[in-house]
Amino acid sequence: MYTNIKGQKIYYEVQGEGRPIVLLHGWGTSLRLYDDVVKYLKENFKVYTLDFPGFGQSEEPSDIWSVYDYADMTEAFLNEMNIQSLFSLAIPLAENLYHIGF
Fold it and tell me: Domain 2-99 is of which CATH architecture?
């Protein structure tokens, strides 16, 4: 599926039912990184995966993005999906979002 967040066409997938969990990929990869993990998590959770702008099937940003831009986009995505509380799995790019207080 696609959504438009902050002027960017963002590809994402949602599978399963239950409490939401959002899986954020690292630099140089895509949501496909989590395909095997999603198979198990979707049995107990509503699993959201997304391709950050410039990765996977999401469009390339027109400008160079900082980690703050990715953090803002992630927050906007959570709001768009009406996710109030969640579990999250962080790896390289996502870790940077946590370090800036996201």
Answer: 3-Layer(aba) Sandwich (3.40)
Residue boundaries of the structural domains of the chain: 2-99
Q: Output the pLDDT for position 51.
A: 95
Cβ within 8 Å of residue 50, ≥6 positions away: 10, 11, 12, 13, 22, 24, 31, 58, 77
Mention every residue, 6+ apart, whose C-beta is less than 8 A from residue 30: 51, 55, 56, 57
CA–CA dist 43, 25 (Å, integer): 21
Q: What is the pTM of this model?
A: 0.85
Instruction: Give the pLDDT band (50/70/90) at residue 100.
Output: very low
pLDDT digits (tens, 9 = 90+) for 8-49: 999 999 999 999 999 988 888 899 989 999 999 999 999 999
